[in-house]
């Protein structure tokens, strides 16, 4: 027969176990959450241009409605003096970014599936991401600026109807990318375009037609020899992807 004291001790231990079990569950859940901070989130990536765009000027010159005016379907994109194309650069960064985001738990939607195709047009790219109901999206490009200019710039939407609800969050996302690019990619802010690297653009389908927070990043200037030498390096491309992933995590989880 148990003494009252023993019974109390047993009850106390049982209670402790009951208290500890949920705590252990919560710790495991929290560990899972920190390993997959983007679980349940959808992220859109639009790698600018495409590897075979140059093969069809007729396709590129089709007119599309960008929400304010008629615009060309797309362009070939630019290239470095050595011939490394912006389409290839954008695809590589996008592929690294997709891997990073999937590892963080996100579902990723891309506007093209490789770098050996033609298109799609810029309005269709916007619609692909809109229809996927992405929580946030980024358009990845590199610029062709003055040969003496360097650095990245962030292009942000201007309210035009479809995007009215996402102007402020897009600006917040732009701040997160700006900070992450400096911290993780270690690239410099544009010294030739925008104000401190920020530019508002009302003439791009990707920004006019978006219904989610989105910015377009020009990661550097392919016309500048020093920027071009950086942009073609896989390590730099991975660093840009890591910076964009960090900005996306911050944008979607830190507020
Ligand atoms: Zn471009």
Structure, briefly:
The chain is of the alpha/beta class and 255 residues long. Helix 5 (167-185) packs across helix 8 (234-253). Helices cover 45% and strands 16% of the residues.
Which helices and strands occur, and which strands form pairs?
Elements: H1 4-35, E1 42-47, H2 57-60, E2 63-65, E3 70-72, H3 86-103, E4 107-110, H4 122-131, E5 136-143, E6 153-157, H5 167-185, E7 198-201, H6 205-208, E8 214-221, H7 225-231, H8 234-253
Parallel strand pairs: 1-4, 1-5, 5-8, 6-7
Antiparallel strand pairs: 2-3, 6-8
What does this structure look like?
- The protein is α/β, with parallel strands linked by helices.
- The protein has one domain: Zn-dependent exopeptidases (Aminopeptidase), CATH 3.40.630.40.
- It is 45% helix and 16% strand.
- The protein has eight helices and eight strands; from the N terminus they run H-E-H-E-E-H-E-H-E-E-H-E-H-E-H-H.
- The strands form two sheets. A six-stranded mixed beta sheet has the order 4-1-5-8-6-7, sandwiched between helices. Strands 2-3 form a two-stranded antiparallel sheet.
- The protein starts with a helix and ends with a helix.
- Mean pLDDT is 91; it is low at 13-21.
- The structure holds zinc ion.
- Zinc ion binds next to loops.
Task: List its traits.
single chain; 255 residues; alpha/beta; Aminopeptidase; two-stranded antiparallel sheet; 8 helices; globular; binds zinc ion
How would you write the strand order of the largest sheet?
Answer: 4-1-5-8-6-7
Output the radius of gyration. Answer: 23 Å
The mean pLDDT is: 91
Strand elements, count: 8
Strand content: 15-25%
Order of helices and strands: HEHEEHEHEEHEHEHH
CATH architecture classification: 3-Layer(aba) Sandwich
The major sheet is characterized as: 6 strands, mixed
CATH superfamily: Zn-dependent exopeptidases
Quaternary structure state of the chains depicted:
single chain
Shape: globular
In the CATH hierarchy, the third-tier topology is known as: Aminopeptidase
Number of helices: 8
Q: Could you estimate the helical fraction of the residues in percent?
A: 40-55%
Summing up helix and strand content along with how strands pair, one would put the structural category as: alpha/beta
Integer count of domains: 1
Q: What hetero molecules are in the model? A: zinc ion
CATH class: Alpha Beta
Distance between the termini: 58 Å
Spans of at least 5 consecutive residues with low confidence: 13-21
């Amino acid at each position: 027969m148990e003494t009252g004291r023993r019974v109390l001790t047993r009850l106390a231990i049982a209670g402790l176990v009951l208290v500890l079990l949920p705590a252990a569950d919560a710790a495991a859940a929290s560990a899972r959450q920190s390993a997959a901070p983007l679980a349940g989130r959808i992220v859109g990536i639009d790698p600018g241009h495409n590897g075979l765009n140059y093969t069809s000027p007729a396709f590129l010159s089709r007119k599309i409605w960008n929400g304010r005016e008629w615009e060309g379907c797309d362009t070939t994109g630019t290239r470095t003096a050595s011939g490394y194309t912006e389409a290839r650069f954008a695809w590589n960064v996008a592929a690294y970014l997709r891997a990073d985001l999937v590892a963080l738990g996100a579902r990723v939607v891309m506007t093209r599936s490789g770098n050996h195709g033609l298109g799609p047009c810029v309005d269709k790219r916007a619609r692909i991401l809109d229809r996927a109901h992405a929580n946030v999206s980024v358009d990845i490009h590199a610029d062709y600026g003055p040969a003496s200019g360097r650095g990245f710039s962030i292009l942000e939407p201007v309210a035009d109807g479809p995007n009215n609800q996402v102007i402020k969050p897009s600006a917040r996302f732009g701040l997160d990318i700006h900070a992450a690019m400096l911290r993780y990619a270690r690239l410099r802010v544009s010294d030739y375009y925008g104000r401190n690297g920020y530019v508002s653009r009302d003439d791009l389908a990707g920004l006019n037609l978006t219904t989610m927070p989105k910015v377009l990043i020009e990661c550097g200037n392919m016309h500048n020899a020093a920027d071009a030498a950086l942009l073609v390096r896989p390590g730099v491309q991975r660093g840009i992807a890591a910076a964009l992933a960090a900005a996306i995590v911050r944008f979607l989880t830190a507020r």
